[in-house]
Amino acid sequence: MIKPIIYHFFLLYLVISLFPIRIGAFPNITILPTTRIFYSFPLIFNLFYDLQISYYCNNVFIVNPLWYNLYHGVILVKKRLLQIYNRLYSEFGPQNWWPADSPFEVIIGAILTQSTSWKNVEKAVQNMKKKGLMTPEALYKAEEQSLAEIIRPSGYYNMKAKKLKAFVNFLFNRFSGDLDEMFKTPTALLRKELLSIYGIGEETADSILLYAGNLPVFVVDAYTRRIFSRLGFFGEETTYGQIQRLFMDNLPPDPCLFNEYHALIVALGKDYCRKTKPNCSGCPLRSGNLF
Ligand code: SF4
């Protein structure tokens, strides 16, 4: 009795698998029939497959509950995203982001890193530390012109000094200089407020929320766009918000996972998925038979 049911279910699934599916919210994503046939096996044995959508973070093994897996409609995308994460994590290991001594330093770094390498940011951060400027109070009192000289190694130093002052002025005017108070604001509202500050765009605002506030907000950068468009998740013209929703709608809202995932994407982008001449033959995603 049970065998014909499984047989017919399987047959039906194979027939459905012949047609590409477009996912409503992400018109650029098409799950190809071959991919779906491949995934249909584990879907039938969903219980066993649950192990594949679990992940490591901070060396803790996290298993998603079954209800979570069943609840989320776009189950294939979610599993694929976590498979990629697991492959990258096993290849590169924990990345321990963000390299900073305090949430305030994370915010400074997030602003200074715009359009420059992290090496240059480190020099500017060290200069600020030497001058005792790595606290909200000290930065609030600092003169914009002298601050610009101090952060000169980060490039675009006049503009960045203006941005740092704009942020710290916001922090004092709105939260009396108290970062903990700032992060108590509902995340969506705080994001909106951060975006209204001079020099803070989406990537910077989200880096602040995730890496300084430990809030479950996914950071999208050029590496994310490049790698996941090459993997066929979306087209080049997809907006920041659409890419972010792809991750946030399909991954558990875990700041640890989002933190590590973004850092691993950067590692892959730097070491393998370079802008020109990507090293596909050595890429861990390819060697992991994920694509
Ligand atoms: S390096 Fe090649 S195989 Fe790896 S993600 Fe980039 S395009 Fe894909």
Description:
The strands form two sheets. Strands 1-2 form a two-stranded antiparallel sheet. The longest helix has 19 residues, at 157-175. It has 17 helices and four strands. Residues 17-40 and 42-51 have low confidence and may be disordered. It has two domains: 1-94 and 220-291, Helix-hairpin-Helix base-excision DNA repair enzymes (C-terminal) (Endonuclease Iii, domain 2); 103-212, Hypothetical protein, domain 2 (Endonuclease III, domain 1), CATH 1.10.340.30. The chain is elongated and about 75 Å long. Helices cover 61% and strands 5% of the residues. Strand 1 (21-23) and strand 2 (26-31) form a beta hairpin. By secondary structure, the protein is mainly α. The protein starts with a helix and ends with a helix. Iron/sulfur cluster is lined by residues 227, 230-231, 272-273, 278-280, 283, 285-286. The site of iron/sulfur cluster has 11 residues, from helix 14 and helix 17.
